[in-house]
Amino acid sequence: MSNIEEIFEKYISSRIFKDREKLLPDYVPRELPHRDNQIRRLATILAPALGGSRPSNVFIYGLTGTGKTAVTKYVLRKLYEKAKKKIEFTYVNCRQNDTSYRVLAELARSIGVRVPFTGLATSEVMKRFLDGLERKARILIVVLDEIDHLVKKHGDDVLYFLTRINEQLSRSRVTIIGITNDLKFMEFLDARVKSSLGEEELVFPPYTATELEDILRKRAEEALHSDVLHGGVIPTVAAIAARQNGDCRLALDLLLKAADIAERMGSPHITLDHVKLAQKEIERNLTIDVIKTMPLHVKLVLAAIYLLEDENYRMVTTGAIYNKYTDITRSLGVEPVTQRRVSDIINELDMLGLINAKVVSMGRYGRTKVISLSASKGSIREGLREDIFLANIL
Question: In this predicted structure, what is the pLDDT of residue 284?
């Protein structure tokens, strides 16, 4: 049997997984523990749709992995089952569809209106969506997940259109559910959009370690064979995720990665060693993903800090970083930004958790900011090397 066939055979007759999909973050289980209050509240807000009345728009806040998307999909699925054909809902992830055109095209396609991927004026897509919706004679519930990504990049034109759309409809109605991780998101909106969009607000608190343990045990029962988990695995995974603002998505990802590693290693059990390996892999992947999406000058400042540490520079200060940064820009033929902007970038990198910037006293010489890398050097190097512009420098 070839190596590939052995790999495939191992997964077909897995000793670890019963149903791997049940650990994926986008799987919506039959029950959502510890979110009863949020489920009841959202169901109460949306219930008027069953009587043919447009529900209020809802804005949902909460940190990553607090169950916002899962609860929304869960309630809408139940509502759809009850409503027969009076209601439709459509889900758009605004991180993936991050332009006004893409969001509108996605909405149009969801109601059966054909729209090309590019080529039309946004106003034409709006018109086609309106006409298609009017023909449907339905209540359409539009879920805009991670809506902050769209608004911060392209403004709130789509939201303005959607919050005013009912004025142009006679046979159909639209309700918007906006979901965001950014608790200050409303500050980015025009006052007219803000008042329409925030008719009802729902806040999702982070999960506690105990709640995460409970969720993980239920998912593990569905996804994994019995007796494959060593005793301390679920409490450890829950504790790690609880430290990261009660992030259930991270908890599930960590358990899934640990199970995958155990499977790859041919182990009959998932142990704490597999959890440690999974944690390293996730942290590495997150660091690389964050660095890959950063603007060029932010990468150049991070590269300057990386190189200073690599050269065992005695004390990495803002001044030393700026000097190294200007050396790099000169070698690349790039116009440098100001020292003040570099200071701002250092603060941004500190907030992202890639570096640690702390002010230390230098006695009679005053105080200075000392900077060090807080993510692993290997991950930072790998993330920076993804940019061909920087590969040679490193």
Answer: 79
